[in-house]
Amino acid sequence: MTLTATSDTPVAPNTRLGAATQAVAAFFQHPWVAGIVRLSAVEDSLRLLHPMLSLTQPRARVVRIVHETADTKTFVLQPNALWHGRRTALAGQYVQLQLEINGRQVQRLYSISSTPGARCFAITVKRQPGGLVSHYLHAQVKVGDVWAVGQPEGSFVLPATLPPKLLLLSAGSGITPVMAMLKDLQARRYPGDVVFLHVCRNPGELIFAKRLQAIAAQYPELSVVTHFDDISGRFGPEALQLAVPDVAERSTYLCGPSGLMDAIHQHWQAQAYTAPLHSERFVAFPLLPSSAPGTPVNVSLASSGTQFVTQGNAPLLVQAENAGLNPKHGCRIGICRSCQCTKRSGTVENLQTGELSSAPNEAIRLCISVARSDVTLLL
Amino acid sequence: MSFAKPTHLSRDQIDTLGHELDAIRASVMNTLGQADVDHMRRMIAICRASEVGGRALLHFGVGPLSWVAGVLALANAKTLDNMEIGHNVMHGQYDWTGDPALNSQTFEWDIACDGEQWRHSHNVTHHTYTNILGKDRDLGYSLLRVTGAQRWKPRHWLQPIANLLLAMGFQYGVGSHDLELGKYKHGAIPKPVFKERLNRFLSKTAKQWFKDYALFPALALWSAPRVLAGNFCANLIRNLWTYVVIFCGHFTEGVSIYREEDTRNETRGDWYLRQLQGSSNLTGGRVFHIMTGHLSHQIEHHLFPDMPAHRYVEIAPQVQALCAKYGLFYNTGSLWKQYGTVLKRLFTHTLPPKPQTLGA
Ligand code: FES
């Protein structure tokens, strides 16, 4: 499963306070009320009173930071009343975090690593070399910081009726959703047989080592297997078969780097295993390579469902018009921003500055942007 | 005043000037960051606090002193919301942050002018066709004669009064700008389109009136007259202030007016040159600049309308130095001096032109 930006469809909150807050927000959004008191001004004022106060936005405050390994930290977050995950979150789901890094809003998805149902929830983040967000989380974030958060989402979850045999298989920071599953199994007193197999480079990189030990001590049905690449060599299907001889019979939940996930999937198919293999892939937003001017690229318009191929150097506005569309525009020289629209993904070049950008969900001006890779526009 | 004289600069010089201005722009745009967002958030915080405080003083205060303080606080909030926050955010100066609260296309402000209509009349029309007679409808707000190139009509005898009325009700002037009443009268705009625009304008105005002149006074019960008068005065102060600042931006002595045919096939350099010669600045301190929404740096604003406005202060010396280098007029002065020249122009052009100066 590939994860991209989540939608923010409002869901009915489960708490009374949350419901009341939403009712107040709906009142402010009524056309007449909105014309008199702007909801945004109310939100500004509430934020001034307390950063967690909002009528529209689930937010969470960092209440504790746990150092898991040299490059992994767990952030324990206390949400406000608009976050309904305490009732609805399922082990294995993720949330979107909205952070402000040097003035820019940045969104990332992180698995919830804590047991569902607790008052607070946690995410666990491994510092990635060159990773903007993970670096920021590690270097800048302090207890007390407040972030906007999304509601729990994702279908990489344990079923309500559990199968008799389970394998939770993870590598690197892929451990976070399966750790939540393991805690959930423990909380649900799962009587079946569960193997927790985790792959990482060396013992120093084993995230949640102590937690795993503690759970294993209280949980006789659980066997924890670790595979350290530095000691036992690269992990693959053969190693899996060796470590878990009855893998074919186990419902498997898999999360890790794509290379490993592909190998396991192929193995599953090649061996024609019938036990289900569930997996989740977190795709960091790829920095798409930009193609040279003149290369044909695909432009998809997400809202109208149209698509066209372009290879010229003409701005997207002109290209869209040539394709028979009539996007909103004004000056056509990059001043008025009438033509501004959200670029979901892809690389564009700003014709005025020559700058290339591939940030997801970025506002671009169609009249001064050319596509330099396949792009998807919210148009 | 007549049309801009052909520039003494060569094509190459204009191109180089364009590149030099691009470099100034890049030097700021590449360093946008937390400090810029923090500035805007601070302005929003001050504005909201000032509005809440002002309204509280009007509603619950006793005596004339608290009334005056309330009016000033509310006028301050409305001015900040209009100039330093609304105007700048709606130019897209903070779109790079990705913060929906600072998004140019959805921002709405606390004045009679509908945001969407302003984005068209201001961002599209005025900023694209700056000072082109017949295209830039900010030129005299289609109401006043500010240049000899505009045809004199008998109604211009009343220009001083029209000017005063426009100043007092400036928000309605700005708000009705996108209606293009003149064009409609000449049949250039179909009736349904005009109707739609009119409805938008009227509905925003009605909401503003309902808020300031009905709802809030009613909520104040026996203090209703006090609140109503206070709201009226706060609006009036904001109107007068924004009028003065905006008129000082393009109608001062020495700004150039352009003919449509001279601005065809403009290069980026030409466009920069027109913005530079068509705008004028005001001198003052930091607070003054903020209260004008940094339109005291109208020149820099017209060159770089989507640069966070509080950065104009730091690039102004570089722009001025470029002007010196190319022998261009950097039009700046104190508020009194600049507004004095605006008045002089208004009064001069109130009078019908003397036949022999026609076309001079
Ligand atoms: S049409 Fe004006 S910025 Fe693109």
From TrEMBL, chain A:
Keywords: 2Fe-2S, FAD, Flavoprotein, Iron, Iron-sulfur, Metal-binding, Oxidoreductase. Its cofactor is FAD. Residues 55-159 form the FAD-binding FR-type domain. One of its GO terms (molecular function) is oxidoreductase activity. CDD domains: fer2, FNR_iron_sulfur_binding_2. The keyword Iron applies. It comes from the Bacteria. The keyword Transport does not apply. InterPro entries: 2Fe-2S_ferredoxin-like_sf, 2Fe-2S_ferredoxin-type, Beta-grasp_dom_sf, Cbr1-like_FAD-bd_dom, FAD-bd_FR_type, FNR_nucleotide-bd, MRET, OxRdtase_FAD/NAD-bd. Pfam families: FAD_binding_6 (PF00970), Fer2 (PF00111), NAD_binding_1 (PF00175). In the N-terminal section; belongs to the FAD-binding oxidoreductase type 6 family. This is Ferredoxin reductase. Signal peptide: none annotated. PROSITE patterns: FAD_FR (PS51384).
